[in-house]
Amino acid sequence: MIVCRTKEELKKNLNHLRENGKSVGFVPTMGYLHEGHGSLLRLAKEANDISVLSIYVNPMQFGPNEDLDRYPRDEARDLALAETNGIDIVFLPTNEEMYPSKPLTAVMVSGLTSQLCGATRPGHFDGVGLVVSKLFNLVKPDRAYFGMKDAQQVAVIEQIVNDLNYDVEIVPCKIIREPDGLALSSRNVYLNAEQRAQAVVLSQSLHLADEWIHEAGLSAGALLDRVRSIISKAKEATIEYVELLHYPSLQPIIEDELLNGMESQIILALAVKFGTTRLIDNSLLSPSGGVQHV
Ligand code: AMP
């Protein structure tokens, strides 16, 4: 496994490995890797000749009062996990390497970034768009792997790829969960024991919604009420949003619209704080059939 800390090293090593038209699979992360990242790495490894992991806590996607400074980091453990998964190249740039000067170029996606996480994290998706564009230009992957845990991010990145003609296939990957259902997240380490136990309400409510969606006569508003009432049973939970939207357009569903038989794919998306820790989770619901991700 080759560890590159500069763009030059990355370019040199990739050019060397990529000879004879070998395919490159890319997994961008912020590190503190867990099995959710592990699943993406294995998919990238399996489907491509060369696998590249980037680990970079991108300051541009954090708001002024967010957890940039305390975001968990463990380089040695991350490198060990990458090695175990047979990754060929790990790109670990510094801020100076990624942003040698203040960028004056923006990658802003309208229509998909003012709702859900974009509403409470202004500028977040601009930061994601910029760093993913920069990383795509450096790595030039054939395929890039993103977790559906960040479903809005997947929609935004697919839009960028289509709008800017990036020659990369975006592979959305299913959410990996703890045995009790909690979606794996680097931020789960912030939870104390009580909050960790209560956080299971997120996946429980998504699971129930998956069944309710088929109930005749159930409206979007009624389903959202049920989900909110389950989450509210957790004493430490403060709901930021519980929303049903069309996916991937992220356009709203009218509250009194009936769900049963709805043709399009819809997303039930949650953001809930447990103490100061903000967790997100979601489920793609398809009233007229199931939805599969690799
Ligand atoms: P992060 O390091 O949190 O920026 O995540 C890097 C990538 O891993 C993103 O594409 C995430 O969506 C994905 N990811 C994070 N958690 C999970 C999970 N529990 N299951 C699947 N993918 C995940």
Summarize the structure.
The protein has ten helices and nine strands.
CATH topology of the largest domain: Rossmann fold
Low-confidence runs: none
Helix content: 25-40%
User: Globular, elongated, flat, extended or rod-shaped: what is the shape?
Assistant: globular
Radius of gyration, in Å, reads 19 Å
The CATH superfamily name of the largest domain is HUPs
Structural class: alpha/beta
How does the major sheet shape up? 6 strands, parallel
> What's the domain count?
2
Widest sheet: strand ordering: 1-4-3-2-5-6
Separate helix tally:
10
Mean pLDDT metric = 96
Question: How widely separated are the two ends?
Answer: 25 Å
The CATH first-level class of the largest domain comes to Alpha Beta
Structural summary, described in words:
There is one protein chain. The protein is of the alpha/beta class and about 290 residues long. It folds into 2 domains: about 170 residues, HUPs (Rossmann fold); about 110 residues, Pantoate--beta-alanine Ligase, Chain: A,domain 2 (2-Layer Sandwich), CATH 3.30.1300.10. It contains 10 helices and 9 strands. The strands form 2 sheets. A 6-stranded parallel sheet has the order 1-4-3-2-5-6, with helices on both faces. The protein has a 3-stranded antiparallel sheet with strand order 7-8-9. Helix 3 links the parallel strand 3 and strand 4. The longest helix has 16 residues. The chain is globular and about 60 Å long. The two termini are about 25 Å apart. The mean pLDDT is about 95. It binds adenosine monophosphate. The site of adenosine monophosphate has 17 residues, from helix 2 and strand 5. Adenosine monophosphate (AMP) binds next to helix 2 and strand 5.
